[in-house]
Design brief:
It is an enzyme of class 2 (transferase). GO terms for molecular function: tRNA (guanine(46)-N7)-methyltransferase activity. It comes from Rhodanobacter ginsenosidimutans. Keywords: Methyltransferase, S-adenosyl-L-methionine, Transferase, tRNA processing. The structure is a single chain. The protein has 233 residues and is an alpha/beta fold. Helices cover 36% and strands 18% of the residues. It has nine helices and seven strands; from the N terminus they run αααβαβαβαβαβαβαβ. Strands 3-2-1-4-5-7-6 form a seven-stranded mixed sheet, with helices on both faces. β1, α4 and β2 form a beta-alpha-beta unit. The protein is globular and about 45 Å long. It starts with 7 loop residues before the first helix and ends with a strand.
């Protein structure tokens, strides 16, 4: 793999911002795939998806990329019922866990992809359709030789911008200071985005981002947390 991209789409397809450590699914998580995928899952087809048909209504769309165990996405969908949520995660145990949580409260406003987020954005999300994108605590790839694998790169945020509705919100969060500074530098240089707080500023933690188990663990280890809020210009 070289560090020099040829064209943006080719570059993003080659780069993987995750390592697929699938882990072992519990019987309950496997049953979720067997019995609940048809209800909550979206099979990747490589063509724009009509989410108004999937949800049975036209509502603002919020996408969470890399939702982990789904704790924050489940909470958001319950406390923001006027909007519809699309979750994207590559790790099966977290997807299964979230489907079980959604089924317990009979959620109707969440659909899930178990697929690479770049490909979902490129091929399944029509331009100008997302009201908000949330990317919370992505892998920081903290070793210098791995920094190029970080998800937040100029090519990726340009792709995000093309899928956002005018004024749409991008909410980033990380507990690695070096990645926070990298995110800030990338976003401040991105022509399609405007810092919602002020040029060069981090945001206070918004009320809609709950403190998850993952975040609490980081705080106990002495990590700080940085939030960034940007609007599509």
């Amino acid at each position: 793999m070289t560090d020099t991209p040829h064209d943006n789409a080719h570059y993003m397809r080659r780069i993987r911002s995750f390592v697929l450590r699938e882990g072992r699914m519990t019987p309950a998580q496997q049953r979720a795939f067997d019995t609940l995928w048809s209800r909550f899952g979206v099979d990747y087809r490589g063509a724009p998806n009509d989410f108004s048909a999937s949800f049975g209504r036209a509502a603002p769309l919020v996408m969470e990329i890399g939702f982990g165990n789904g704790e924050a996405l489940a909470w958001a969908s319950e406390h923001d019922a006027a909007r519809d949520f699309i979750g994207v995660e590559v790790h099966g145990p977290g997807v299964g866990r979230l489907m079980n949580a959604l089924a317990q409260r009979d959620a109707t406003n969440v659909r899930l992809y178990k697929h690479d987020a770049v490909e979902v954005l490129e091929h399944e999300i029509a331009p100008g359709t997302l009201a908000e994108v949330r990317i919370w605590f992505p892998d920081p790839w903290h070793k210098a030789r791995h920094n190029k694998r970080r998800l937040i790169q100029p090519e990726f945020v340009a792709l995000l911008a093309s899928r956002m509705a005018p004024g749409g919100l991008l909410h980033l969060a990380t507990d690695w200071q070096a990645y926070a500074e990298h995110m800030l530098a990338v976003m401040e240089s991105a022509p399609d985005w405007r810092n919602d707080i002020g040029p060069g500023q981090f945001a206070e933690k918004p009320a809609w981002r709950i403190e998850t188990h993952f975040e609490r663990r980081g705080l106990k280890l002495g990590h700080g947390v940085w939030d960034l809020l940007y609007r599509k210009v």
